[in-house]
Amino acid sequence: MSENDTIPKKSTSQINKAVFFTSALLIFLLVAFAAVFPDVADKNFKLLQQQIFTNASWFYILAVALILLSVTFLGLSRYGDIKLGPDHAQPDFSYHSWFAMLFSAGMGIGLMFFGVAEPVMHYLSPPVGTPETVAAAKEAMRLTFFHWGLHAWAIYAIVALILAFFSYRHGLPLTLRSALYPIIGDRIYGPVGHAVDIFAVIGTVFGVATSLGYGFAGECRFEPSFRGAHQ
């Protein structure tokens, strides 16, 4: 897509009912299933996690590495000079304000809990190997740096670039479906686009819920007034 392409449809602020209600229904069903059958849900989710870890770890690590290389290339090449908005647009925030918001949104409450908890958890219960050994400690630090280092920021960056470029520069919806416009065109407004957005909404909701849950549990350890609610 060239910078001068004219996109036939512009983004609006209206709720996409197909995406909203389908996502809400699926989230409700998953939460209800976990609440009513906690043991069954725990068993099945752990089995699914183990299958993904066993069969797809290589793909995940490779994909993240490619994303990091792609973001680095975009940032250092001439493409890094393209504005994520109209050519005449100016930044709404100073560099320092932008960095503060970026760091807070990128790390947030997760850093308060996982900054200490994640290496300890991997040390006590490593994905592979013997717990509480020197090898487990090294693996724990490697995993922590992988989850919170440049690779993680590259994932945040590629999603932000996709959303900003297609929405603010080309007027497409501020959703992940817009990334498919160069491939499938106006079909992003149909079932394929809905499916992409539904998957993104569910992943975002459960990802944020997990972060908030762990963060609140960590706060309860330090703030006595929260302990009653936690218990």
UniProtKB/TrEMBL annotation:
UniProt key word Glycoprotein: no
- Keyword DNA repair present in the record's keywords: the answer is no
Q: What is its main location?
A: membrane
Membrane topology value: Multi-pass membrane protein
User: Which controlled-vocabulary keywords does the entry list?
Assistant: Cell membrane, Membrane, Transmembrane, Transmembrane helix, Transport
- Which cellular components does GO assign to this protein? plasma membrane
A GO molecular function assigned to this protein is: transmembrane transporter activity
Transmembrane stretches in the record are: 18-37, 57-76, 97-117, 148-168
Q: Which Pfam families match?
A: BCCT (PF02028)
Q: Where is it located?
A: Cell membrane
Q: Which family does the entry's similarity section mention? A: Belongs to the BCCT transporter (TC 2.A.15) family.
Looking up PANTHER family in the UniProt record yields:
HIGH-AFFINITY CHOLINE TRANSPORT PROTEIN, HIGH-AFFINITY CHOLINE TRANSPORT PROTEIN-RELATED
What name has this protein been given in UniProt?
Answer: Betaine-carnitine-choline transporter family member
Q: Which organism is it from?
A: Escherichia coli
**Name of the gene:** betU_1
